[in-house]
Amino acid sequence: MSSLSLAVRDSSTMLRRNLLHARRYPSLTLNLLLTPIMLLLLFVYIFGDVLSTGIGGADRSDYVAYLVPGILMMTIGGTVIGTAVSVATDMNEGIIARFRTLAIHRGSVLVGHVVASVIQCVASVVLVGAVAVAIGFRSTDATALEWLAAFGLLALFSLALTWIAVGMGMVSPSAEAAANSAQPLILLPLISSAFIPADTMPGWFQPIAEYQPFTPAIETLRGLLLGTEIGNNWWIALAWCVGLTVLGYFWSTASFNRDPK
Hints:
Layout: H1 3-24, H2 27-45, H3 48-54, H4 60-93, H5 95-101, H6 107-134, H7 144-171, H8 175-181, H9 184-187, H10 206-210, H11 214-226, H12 233-257
Helix pairs in contact: 1-6, 2-4, 2-6, 3-4, 4-6, 4-7, 4-8, 4-11, 6-7, 7-8, 7-11, 7-12, 11-12
């Protein structure tokens, strides 16, 4: 069997393993999904009318349209926390050490976690998107190509954050520590342009909102789905995705290949 065939076979096995774990223990994913769904409902039904006026909208439906792209990105950040916990659990329960002794492709262990995480992120985004549609979100002006680009951006952002989450899980001493270290992945959207435009924030706070990965990704997604101005946000978002993917990949592989003490 060729090296490529071996890698594909072993990666597929690890992918099935991680998907089975997610299916047998869905409580973690569901708990992480509650945060973006609750924030979506809270901001739409409690603050929607006021915030719609603040962004120049006519009614609550305008704020629903503004809010949903940010909530979808937040959903990705929340879902990958489960990946960090899963990797940390494997590391601390000894299964990773066991895998190192088996005649399997070494990279398949990480690939299985990453691909499973991206699949879970996409599924989570679809679920939250369904809730958004149910409460009134519409994207009637987006073309098929723009929808495809939006899906590609969500998948690429999922991949980038997944590799970072895998690296966090690899170096965490426990599952609880992994969950805590990955919290910025769900907190950063709260200080981005997800809920209000960055230029309406206090002047000293605007750079925090602007110079982080979530804001350009949210603005790009908003432009694709709603037809708003994208500007330079698309290439900044892509640069963040590529940079985080490369950083997370080398961090994760270096941690995985390090000889256990």
